[in-house]
């Protein structure tokens, strides 16, 4: 049974126990990092442990600031005096160069303080003026950069704890130069096969030094590239610093592998670890023996005391004094060169760096000279107490280290031996037996060299550190600098050299991102515009006359500063027509009899230029491709001129002279400008100086201007009309007294005087003559209708023939002429008897000429409302007699009505008849008005501003306070409070700017998402938060945040540009401190180039990409491009997803600080994501369109099903996508249906490609069975207009398609009032501003419905038609008279058919709001809601601000632009 158990145990466990491995390592293996050598003081001798001083530190401040000038001499002065001795002096002890460099190798095993400290501190050495090496040009500003080495961060805090440097390797003789100072480093050097160190292609050499080995890998100075060029992987970080250290590293590498091979032969059952540790133990012991018992006596010329055993209480730490005594003294022993020989004692020639051949390998160093005692004493002012350790120790040394240096070095090595628990002679550590120790003591460096090389043992002396007479291979002679190449002179390296152009080009490219984006946006806009025009061309067939197709193509030369334009010249009987590429008429040249026409041809440059010169016209200059084309047109011109009976002359001249002789359109315009200036200066009695500055040759120019004559085209242009208008034809025919087809200065002056200064009788007589077409002294009804039609032409012929006939009949009947078919001038003037004041101030508006403000002020009719002469409704007005409301008017009354005397146009401000009945006011009496001083007015204006915008100011203040606080916190942190990394010292401005703006931008780009949470905003506006947060301004706040964020982004980028420049010129020692995870100080002096930072790092590449994304997004989001291409705006704005991904990646790389973007982004992202999910839950519900109607002016009316549970308020808007046009492109539109209606409706104007295609899709189907495409619906979303009901009095101002929200509001208000729903709002004034009433006739239907259902007089409608000219213009005056007459007779507007009052021109908002204060004196706040073009909303806002300066009713303005 026992046998079976033993067998089972063997089978289970046996294979897992390596044979022979149980007792192979019977000792405690020494750690690679030096820890736990001393079991009481674990850190003694460990890597990173601080140096232990023998004497107290002598810092300038007692803590860390070093002593310098003027307390100590300049280091360069000391160097020039003490270390400029003769080279090539023979060693007094006949030391070999191997002893010198073996000492360096021992030091690399014991101590390393070359690595610079972090943060970087510099003790720069100022070079004396005229230094022969560093300042031969005597600049006087040369500085040698000297960076302080690393220190223990726990030191340097106080005088009792001064700064101590740290040792970057283990402080033991443990072979760290062979095996590395860490376990990972050792593993990187091992092959893990046979216990050997890894070799390269040649087993005799280590593998090449590669990343990520922490090796000193200097780049090639010529190329800056690293690579395998004989740089090997050693345990010492700087084992490749020089060829002699490299040779000793190769020596111990081979010796270890030799020992491992020998052990493998002796113990074939050992594994790799056993072989490696046994070989390592033997190599370290041999190394300790050679260093202490062979090399040290040769260096000090004295033997260390006998080893008495391990002393655990002895501190073996390396001292700074030991460095000066050993390493610095060894530097004085380096010869000027080293002979190179082979195994047979043959000395070889050496090829130097400059391709020359020398007898030895050049070694460059400074040489110590003892003959400088007096000069050195002079530097220290003869004060020995100031003498430093190095120069003092050198002064007492001669050949060998002096007493001070010898004592320091011997003490250090004895402490290293006696305090080392793993010393090979310590029999208690179990490393070696007595026999093995004796064997090791008998091993010398000679044995090692013989073992690892193929040299003949007889070719080496037994003591390789000395050469005595009789030893083999004597050197040819003592080496000196003679015959050796000169040392490479010091090089001043400019890290940024060659990078300036590329760096500037990169910055310029980044700055061009917006320009490139602008170019792309412009191209997109042009393409969209062209496609839109094609689309429009497909929808409306152009009626271009095909008779113009025949013609001659040419280029018209317009002047030296103007580009040539392609034209088509078409000859017709009596005229020459010039057309553009779209066959639009550019110019018509009349060919009248008795005219002298000149044809001038060019006789050079290909004979392809033609000048057509006709009197009283500017010249026509044509350029042809071929002379044949010009000749064909000339032949046709000759025929046409002969047929017209015109005489013409023809000659030739040089092309340059021809163009100089031509009168261009620009020259003609200047001539006409002088014409009109002097014309009005005479009519209006303007001073000659006020007529404008004249050219230097003013007399000639004025004479030429006054003798010129206007064609009918120029006359029409001066009036802003078309040449074919009936009004132009009538006026031109009347003014052209001589009938030559042109108006002279006197003819124009005569007719202008009548309009500017004539009486009403003279003006009416002038109009009578204009439209007395048959010149019989009478105007028939047909002529009267033609007269009205000429006036109505300017309103796009908005009246039909029947309406015009009805107007004429009513005017004849009202004047008592119903039985007459023709009118005399007296009858005509009698018909206008009630409008003398209008005729008195009637002018002829000439384009480009300003009428004096005095006349404008007298004539301008301000629309306002007065409670003194106002009836609230037609039902009440029925009790008012007509005679009670007539305002007394006399011809002598020239002043315009003021607030206390309303004009006749006020009769139906509310669309009702005017009576003297007192209106139903909501208050009892006026508030008292106070006369305020200017200071009180300013204070009141400020109070009103705060009152109106207190929510906006509060939110903006809180938001920007947080952003500024984040900026200041980061800026302060990196300037004063950050851990000492040195980044603030390297790039103070750049790091403050980049980090501060990064915090603010992270906050802004995160919380800008909340402004786009439409569902959340719609919900929150109905809560108490609406009293504190202006949700209506979410889009404006979005733009404000975006604008601020882009400014901060530019500043952030500017900060990084500064950083990149400074990082590109900073040495790797500084960069390794700033970015320890990115750079390692491997001895290279070359920092990364600028392009590495921009394009080869994650933050740089993502940052550049984000700049490009932002440039595209911001350009396409600008108002202009958003209007040109909404789809481009829509698509590019969805780049925000990429933007946020890049932001997360950009900050996650943590170059400078840990990622912080998620702190700001997480909460807004979750809220925004939830809001998007709500929208997505609605978007994919297909909604059927129940009715589609194409309305005039490109408006499409859609009526569609109301989704279940869809609740909204009047004034809200939705986003729709048409399935036939794509399911991803949504467009916002305001609902025009009221909340009580069962269906939803939209009125969409075809203003772009999407809305135009939408109009096409919903055109009436040819097949009655066809159904309309379905919609996706998202919404509803709230805006400021839905708050109309919160004001007792509300004013709604709609411009163009901006009337859509008010259609819903008007219907909602009337419905609620009809069902006795309690509404706080008691009165609504609706102002509709439109170019012509035909543009939005669908709204007129809605207003008509409101008028019919408004039984409580809640709504007052005012319509302003802006296409018409000012009221003092002749045409508008006549329309105004007809409109007032039509309202007077039929109680409705001539133009709209509504009872609402129709006005001409733009609404005067300020007088209108002033009148509201009179009507509603006790209403403290009136809501003003405007929607339309930005220009209109700005005028409304300006009027509100002006009114709010008064201590009266406050007007709160809410607006939305489109």
Overview of the molecule:
The protein is an alpha+beta fold. The strands form eight sheets. The protein has an eight-stranded mixed β-sheet with strand order 10-9-8-7-13-12-11-14. A hairpin with an 8-residue loop joins β7 and β8. The radius of gyration is 51 Å and the shape is elongated.
The rough form would be described as elongated
Low-confidence stretches: 1-22, 212-216, 218-224, 540-549, 686-697, 851-931
Helix content: 40-55%
The counted number of beta strands is: 29
Coarse structural class? alpha+beta
Tally the helices. Answer: 48
**Biggest sheet, open or closed, and with what strands and sense?**
8 strands, mixed
Provide a compact summary of the structure.
By secondary structure, the protein is an alpha+beta fold.
Features:
single chain; 1458 residues; alpha+beta; eight-stranded mixed β-sheet; six-stranded parallel β-sheet; 29 strands; disordered N terminus
Task: Please render the helix and strand layout as text.
Elements: H1 2-13, H2 75-82, H3 97-110, E1 125-126, E2 143-144, H4 176-179, H5 183-189, H6 243-266, H7 272-300, H8 320-331, E3 337-338, E4 350-351, E5 357-358, E6 361-362, H9 373-379, H10 389-395, H11 403-418, H12 434-441, H13 445-452, H14 500-511, H15 513-539, E7 552-556, E8 565-572, E9 575-579, E10 585-590, E11 596-602, E12 609-613, E13 620-623, H16 627-643, E14 647-653, H17 655-661, H18 665-683, H19 698-707, H20 712-719, H21 726-735, H22 745-757, H23 760-770, E15 779-780, H24 781-792, H25 801-814, E16 822-823, H26 825-831, H27 836-840, H28 853-859, H29 874-877, H30 882-885, H31 934-977, H32 983-986, H33 988-1007, H34 1014-1020, H35 1034-1064, H36 1068-1074, H37 1090-1095, H38 1098-1117, H39 1119-1124, H40 1126-1133, H41 1136-1148, H42 1157-1179, E17 1182-1183, E18 1185-1191, E19 1195-1201, E20 1213-1218, E21 1227-1230, E22 1239-1245, H43 1249-1257, E23 1271-1277, E24 1289-1295, H44 1300-1314, E25 1323-1330, H45 1337-1349, E26 1355-1361, H46 1370-1386, E27 1397-1400, H47 1405-1415, E28 1421-1428, H48 1430-1444, E29 1450-1457
Parallel strand pairs: 11-14, 24-25, 24-28, 25-26, 26-27, 28-29
Antiparallel strand pairs: 1-2, 3-6, 4-5, 7-8, 7-13, 8-9, 9-10, 11-12, 12-13, 15-16, 17-23, 18-19, 19-22, 20-21, 20-23
């Amino acid at each position: 049974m026992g046998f079976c158990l033993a067998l089972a145990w063997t089978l289970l466990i046996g294979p897992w126990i390596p044979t022979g491995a149980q007792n192979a390592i019977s000792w405690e293996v020494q750690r690679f990092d030096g820890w736990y050598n001393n079991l009481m003081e674990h850190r003694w001798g460990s890597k990173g442990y601080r140096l232990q001083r023998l004497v107290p530190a002598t810092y300038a401040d007692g803590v860390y600031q070093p002593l310098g000038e003027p307390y100590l001499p300049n280091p360069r002065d000391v160097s020039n005096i003490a270390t400029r001795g003769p080279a090539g002096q023979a060693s007094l002890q006949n030391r070999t160069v191997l002893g010198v460099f073996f000492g360096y190798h021992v030091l690399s095993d014991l101590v390393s303080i070359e690595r610079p400290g972090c943060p970087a501190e510099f003790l720069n050495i100022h070079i004396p003026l005229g230094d022969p090496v560093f300042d031969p040009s005597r600049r006087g500003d040369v500085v040698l950069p000297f960076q302080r080495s690393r220190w223990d961060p726990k030191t340097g805090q106080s005088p009792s704890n001064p700064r101590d440097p740290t040792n970057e390797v283990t402080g033991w003789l443990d072979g760290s130069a062979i095996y590395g100072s860490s376990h990972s480093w050792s593993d990187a050097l091992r092959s893990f096969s046979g216990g050997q160190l890894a070799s390269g292609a040649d087993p005799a050499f280590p593998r090449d030094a590669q990343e990520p080995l922490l090796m000193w890998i200097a780049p090639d100075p010529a190329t800056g590239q690293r690579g395998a060029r004989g740089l090997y992987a050693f345990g010492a970080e700087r084992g490749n610093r020089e060829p002699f250290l490299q040779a000793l590293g190769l020596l111990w590498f081979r010796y270890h592998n030799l020992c491992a091979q020998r052990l493998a032969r002796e113990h074939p059952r050992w594994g790799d670890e056993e072989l490696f540790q046994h070989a390592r133990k033997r190599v370290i012991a041999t190394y300790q023996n050679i260093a202490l018992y062979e090399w040290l006596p040769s260096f000090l010329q004295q033997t260390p005391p006998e080893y008495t055993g391990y002393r655990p209480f002895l501190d073996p730490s390396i001292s700074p004094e030991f460095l000066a005594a050993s390493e610095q003294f060894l530097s004085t022993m380096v010869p000027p060169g080293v002979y190179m020989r082979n195994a047979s004692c043959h000395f070889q020639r050496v090829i130097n760096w400059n391709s020359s051949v020398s007898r030895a390998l050049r070694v460059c160093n400074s040489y110590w000279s003892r003959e400088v005692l007096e000069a050195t004493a002079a530097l220290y002012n003869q004060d020995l107490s100031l003498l430093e350790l190095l120069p003092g120790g050198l002064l007492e040394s001669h050949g060998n280290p002096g007493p001070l240096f010898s004592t320091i070095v011997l003490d250090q090595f004895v402490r290293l031996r006696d305090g080392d628990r793993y010393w090979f002679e310590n029999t208690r550590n179990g490393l070696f037996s007595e026999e093995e120790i004796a064997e090791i003591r008998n091993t010398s460096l000679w044995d090692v060299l013989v073992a690892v090389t193929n040299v003949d043992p007889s070719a080496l002396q037994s003591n390789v550190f000395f050469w005595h007479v009789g030893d083999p291979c004597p050197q040819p002679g003592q080496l000196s600098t003679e015959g050796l190449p000169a040392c490479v002179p010091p090089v001043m390296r400019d890290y940024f050299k060659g990078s300036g152009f590329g760096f500037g080009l990169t910055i310029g490219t980044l700055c061009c991102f917006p320009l490139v984006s602008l170019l792309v946006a412009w191209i997109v806009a042009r393409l969209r515009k062209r496609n839109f025009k094609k689309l429009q061309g497909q929808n409306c067939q152009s009626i271009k006359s095909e008779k113009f197709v025949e013609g001659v193509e040419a280029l018209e030369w317009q002047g030296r500063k103007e580009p040539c334009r392609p034209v088509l010249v078409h000859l017709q009987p009596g005229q020459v027509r010039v057309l553009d590429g779209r066959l639009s008429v550019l110019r018509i040249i009349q060919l009248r009899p008795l005219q002298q026409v000149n044809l001038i041809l060019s006789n050079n440059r290909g004979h392809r230029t033609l000048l057509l010169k006709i009197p009283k016209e500017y010249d026509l200059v044509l350029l042809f491709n071929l002379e044949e084309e010009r000749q064909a047109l000339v032949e046709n011109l000759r025929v046409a001129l002969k047929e017209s009976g015109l005489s013409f002359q023809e000659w030739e001249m040089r092309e340059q002279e021809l163009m100089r002789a031509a009168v261009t359109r620009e020259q003609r315009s200047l001539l006409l400008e002088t014409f009109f200036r002097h014309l009005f200066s005479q009519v209006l009695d303007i001073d000659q100086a006020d007529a404008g500055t004249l050219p230097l040759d003013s007399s000639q120019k004025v004479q030429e201007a006054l003798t010129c004559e206007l064609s009918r085209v120029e006359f029409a242009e001066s009036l802003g009309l078309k040449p074919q208008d009936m009004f132009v034809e009538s006026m031109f025919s009347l003014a052209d007294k001589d009938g030559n087809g042109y108006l002279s200065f006197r003819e124009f002056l005569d007719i202008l005087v009548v309009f500017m200064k004539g009486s009403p009788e003279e003006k009416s007589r002038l109009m009578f003559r204009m439209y007395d077409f048959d010149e019989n002294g009478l105007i028939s009804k047909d002529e009267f209708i033609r007269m009205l039609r000429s006036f109505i032409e300017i309103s796009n012929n908005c009246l039909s023939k029947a309406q015009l006939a009805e107007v004429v009949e009513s005017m004849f009947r009202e004047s008592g002429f119903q039985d007459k078919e023709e009118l005399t001038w007296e009858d005509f003037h009698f018909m206008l008897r009630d409008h003398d004041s209008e005729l008195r101030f009637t002018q002829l508006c000439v384009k480009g000429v300003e009428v004096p403000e005095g006349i404008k002020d007298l004539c301008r009719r301000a629309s306002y409302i007065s409670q003194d002469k106002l009836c609230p409704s037609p039902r009440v007005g029925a009790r008012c007699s007509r005679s009670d409301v007539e305002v007394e008017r006399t011809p002598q009354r020239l002043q315009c009505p003021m607030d206390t005397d309303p004009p006749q146009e006020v009769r139906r401000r509310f669309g009702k008849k005017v009576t003297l009945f007192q209106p139903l006011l909501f208050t009892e009496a006026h508030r008292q008005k106070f006369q305020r001083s200017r200071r009180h007015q300013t204070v009141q204006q400020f109070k009103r501003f705060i009152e109106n915008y207190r929510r906006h100011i509060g939110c903006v203040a809180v938001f920007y306070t947080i952003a500024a606080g984040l900026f200041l916190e980061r800026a302060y942190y990196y300037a004063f409070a950050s851990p000492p990394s040195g980044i603030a010292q390297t790039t103070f401005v750049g790091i403050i700017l980049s980090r501060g703006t990064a915090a603010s931008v992270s906050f802004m780009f995160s919380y800008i998402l909340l402004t786009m949470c439409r569902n959340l905003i719609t919900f929150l506006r109905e809560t108490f938060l609406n009293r504190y947060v202006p949700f209506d301004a979410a889009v404006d706040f979005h733009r404000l945040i975006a604008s601020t964020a882009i400014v901060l982004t530019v500043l952030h980028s500017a900060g990084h540009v500064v950083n990149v420049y400074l990082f590109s010129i900073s040495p790797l020692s500084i960069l390794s401190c700033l970015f320890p995870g990115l750079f390692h100080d491997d001895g290279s002096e070359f920092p990364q180039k600028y392009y590495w930072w921009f394009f080869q790092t994650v933050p740089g590449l993502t940052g550049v990409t984000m700049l490009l994304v932002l440039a595209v997004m911001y350009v396409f989001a600008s108002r202009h491009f958003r209007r040109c291409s909404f789809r481009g705006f829509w698509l590019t704005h969805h780049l925000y997803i990429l933007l946020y991904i890049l932001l997360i990646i950009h900050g996650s790389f943590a170059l400078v600080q840990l990622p912080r973007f998620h702190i700001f982004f997480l909460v807004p992202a979750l809220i925004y994501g939830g809001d998007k999910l709500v929208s997505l839950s609605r978007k994919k519900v297909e909604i059927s369109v129940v009715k589609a109607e194409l309305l005039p002016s490109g408006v499409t009316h859609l009526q569609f099903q109301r989704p279940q549970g869809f609740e909204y308020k009047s004034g809200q808007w939705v986003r729709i996508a048409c399935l036939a046009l794509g399911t991803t492109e949504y467009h916002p539109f305001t609902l025009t249906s009221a909340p009580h209606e069962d269906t939803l409706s939209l009125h969409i104007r075809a203003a772009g490609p999407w809305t135009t295609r939408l109009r096409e899709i919903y055109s009436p189907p040819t097949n009655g069975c066809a159904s309309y495409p379905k919609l996706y619906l998202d919404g509803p979303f709230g805006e400021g207009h839905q708050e109309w009901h919160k004001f007792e009095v509300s004013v709604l101002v709609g411009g163009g398609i901006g009337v859509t929200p008010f259609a819903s509001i008007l219907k909602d208000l009337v419905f609620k009032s009809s069902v006795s729903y309690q509404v706080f709002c008691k009165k609504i004034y609706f102002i509709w501003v439109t170019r012509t009433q035909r543009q939005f006739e669908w709204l007129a239907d809605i207003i008509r419905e409101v008028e019919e259902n408004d039984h409580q007089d809640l709504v007052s409608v005012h319509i302003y038609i802006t296409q018409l000219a000012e009221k003092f213009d002749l045409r508008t005056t006549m329309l105004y008279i007809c409109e007032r007459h039509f309202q007077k007779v039929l109680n409705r507007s001539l133009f709209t058919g509504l009872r609402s009052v129709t006005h001409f021109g733009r609404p005067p908002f300020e007088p209108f709001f002033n009148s509201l204060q009179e009507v509603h004196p006790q209403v403290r706040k009136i809501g003003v809601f405007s929607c339309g073009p930005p220009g209109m909303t700005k005028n409304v806002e300006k009027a509100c601000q002006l009114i709010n300066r008064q201590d009266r009713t406050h007007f709160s303005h809410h607006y939305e632009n489109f």
